[in-house]
């Protein structure tokens, strides 16, 4: 089995190895996002999540952010002020479902497993809605997490009494996470991207993904990778994990394609990326390359 974003997985051992690699690539890229951009995406995500939670049953479990996860604490404070019962998860030990403790603004906190803050109060609460942070996700709403199995075991224990809403950034959408029998899909996934609204039309629908890629003007994975590889030297060092993530996602990009690189990559990196962006068909890869473009165009690593 190869180590890229669309590798087939044929056994649980191979799936675990693939997920370990995927997890490292995605978390590295998330940490490498420019802080201002991460904050803007988080703000948009909170707006979308606020709508998604409008009819969600309480208590609602959130999470305390770490490893550059979307920081939803402003929304937590807002919901707490509105009188909605909230909770935070408590990982007791590996291999066991989580428990939940009530949370309110100003609640005393202590360090839990992995030093993640948890409420001091030992009282437990059973959530009916769980907001779950995503490392990655696929089109069937399966969640790539941190590998401890906490959420899957917790959802299996709660059963139909609770629903899970996955939250994360849209650039970490994957073709598949190779779901296994023990994996439980999220009821829905919320990202910073605006929900798609399709208006009625008198004409037959033409689906873009059914058209020939060459007709659409999109480059192949190998061509995109060939155009990106030479640009690593122009990126701020703290953005290199973003490039590593994109190259990992480009499944067929095993050999450089010099012709493709010449076609889309002039001497100026910002020009190369500007020409490349309209020719990327995958939304998640397009979003990641757009971040690289902003980093090169601005000339700084902190925007």
What do you see in this structure?
The protein has ten helices and eleven strands. The protein has 303 residues and is α/β, with parallel strands linked by helices. The protein folds into two domains: 12-190, 3-Layer(aba) Sandwich (Rossmann fold); 214-298, no CATH class. A six-stranded mixed beta sheet has the order 3-2-1-6-9-11, sandwiched between helices. A three-stranded mixed beta sheet has the order 8-7-10, covered by helices on one side. Strand 2 and strand 3 form a beta hairpin. Helix 6 crosses helix 8 (258-264), helix 7 (240-249) packs antiparallel against helix 10 and helix 9 packs antiparallel against helix 10. The chain starts with 11 loop residues before the first helix and ends in a 5-residue tail after the last helix. Residues 196-206 and 252-262 have low confidence and may be disordered.
Radius of gyration: 21 Å
The number of distinct structural domains comes to 2
- Calculate the terminal CA-CA distance, rounded to whole Å: 38 Å
Biggest sheet architecture: 6 strands, mixed
| Overall spatial form | globular
CATH architecture of the largest domain, by name, is 3-Layer(aba) Sandwich
H-E order: HHEHEEEEEEEHEEEHHHHHH
How many helices in DSSP terms?
A: 10
Low-confidence residue ranges: 196-206, 252-262
Which CATH top level class of the largest domain fits?
Answer: Alpha Beta
Strand order, sheet with most strands: 3-2-1-6-9-11
Q: Helix coverage percent of residues?
A: 25-40%
Q: How many E strands?
A: 11
Report mean pLDDT, rounded to a whole number. 86
Instruction: Briefly note the CATH topology name of the largest domain.
Output: Rossmann fold
Strand content is 5-15%
Please identify which CATH superfamily of the largest domain we are dealing with. NagB/RpiA/CoA transferase-like
Query: Structural class, judged by helices and strands?
Result: alpha/beta
């Amino acid at each position: 089995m190869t180590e890229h974003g669309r590798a087939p997985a044929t056994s649980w051992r191979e799936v675990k190895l693939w997920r370990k690699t995927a997890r490292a690539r995605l978390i590295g890229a998330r940490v490498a996002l420019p802080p201002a951009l991460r904050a803007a995406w988080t703000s948009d995500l909170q707006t979308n999540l606020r709508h998604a939670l409008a009819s969600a049953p309480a208590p609602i479990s959130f999470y305390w952010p770490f490893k550059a996860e979307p920081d939803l604490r402003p929304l937590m404070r807002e919901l707490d002020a509105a009188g909605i019962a909230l909770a935070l998860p408590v990982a007791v030990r590996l291999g066991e479902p989580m428990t939940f403790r009530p949370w309110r603004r100003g609640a005393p906190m202590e360090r839990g497993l992995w030093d993640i803050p948890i409420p001091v109060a030992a009282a437990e609460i059973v959530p009916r809605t769980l907001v779950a942070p995503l490392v990655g996700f696929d089109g069937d709403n399966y969640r790539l997490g941190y590998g401890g199995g906490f959420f899957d075991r917790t959802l299996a224990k709660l059963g139909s009494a609770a629903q899970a809403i996955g939250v994360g950034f849209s650039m970490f959408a994957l073709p598949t996470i190779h779901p296994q029998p023990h994996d439980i899909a999220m009821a829905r996934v919320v990202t910073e991207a605006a929900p798609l609204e399709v208006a009625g039309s008198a004409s037959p629908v033409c689906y873009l993904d059914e058209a020939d890629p060459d007709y659409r003007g999109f480059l192949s994975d190998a061509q995109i990778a060939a155009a990106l590889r030479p640009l690593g030297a122009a990126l701020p060092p703290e953005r290199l994990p973003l490039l590593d993530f994109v190259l990992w996602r480009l499944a067929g990009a095993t050999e450089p394609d010099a012709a493709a690189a010449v076609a889309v990559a002039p001497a100026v990196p910002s020009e190369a990326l500007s020409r490349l962006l309209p020719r990327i068909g995958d939304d998640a890869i397009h979003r990641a390359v757009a971040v690289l473009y902003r980093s090169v165009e601005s000339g700084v690593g902190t925007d």
